[in-house]
Amino acid sequence: MLQVRVLALMMTLALFLTACGGKSQDEAARIRQELQQAQSLTADLTVTADYGERVYTFGLRYEGDLERGTLTVTEPELIRGVTATTEAGSCTLTYDGVDFDTGDLAPGIRPMSVMALLMEQWCSGLVQSVSREQTEQGKALCVNTRYDEQITQSTWFDLRTHLPVRAEVYRNGKMMLSVAFADVTIS
To answer: 67, 111, 135, 174: least buried by Cβ within 10 Å?
Structure first.
């Protein structure tokens, strides 16, 4: 009789876990669909880039859509006003008409190209896992995608608004970029 109860409990637990996973997958699919239909996106970002021997934090303002846009440096004061034009597969950093290079964290991945990478992953990345989590900002859905064999990303979307709260980009399991979002508008 005990074996039947244990088996029944295990089956109930398995059904519950499957149902929860299905709900999260459905929510992730809704977020992806909303993002794919968006015409514009604006956000304030705090981006931390870990180059190994040095770590830099930037304040950025993104204005554009999910294919291309402009990032403007808001912090640090020393480089305020520097802009980056992002587009799938490219990022050009300019100031007063002069282009310059910040260096790659991984081939083709720079702090200023993080929005292009994230937006590509949000709309078409290979989803590895989805989970519901409690963050400092409230309940969120964490969507993990694979960019390539070495690069993965995790983005936490607010469950009420479906807006990104934070994201992390990893290379071989080591975080190289973290992004905190504020004042996000998607229309």
So the answer is: 174
The Cα 57–Cα 51 span in angstroms is: 11
Q: pTM of the entire structure? A: 0.81
**Mutual angle of helices 114-124 and 2-37, in 10-degree steps:** 120
Task: Return the number of other C-beta atoms located less than 10 Å from residue 122's C-beta.
Answer: 24
Q: What CA–CA distance (Å, rounded) separates 123 from 59?
A: 24
- Tell me the C-alpha distance between 50 and 82, whole Å: 20
CB of 10 within 8 A of CB of 18?
Answer: no
Residue 17, judged by CB atoms within 10 A of its CB (0-12, 13-18, 19+), counts as exposed
Residue 42: Cβ within 10 Å count: 14
Q: From first to last of its 187 residues, what are the pLDDT tens digits of the chain?
A: 434 333 333 333 333 333 345 788 999 999 999 999 999 999 999 999 998 889 999 899 999 987 888 989 999 898 888 887 876 655 555 555 444 445 556 656 777 788 888 999 999 999 999 999 998 889 999 999 999 999 999 999 999 999 999 999 999 999 999 999 999 999 9
66/102 Cα distance (integer angstroms): 23
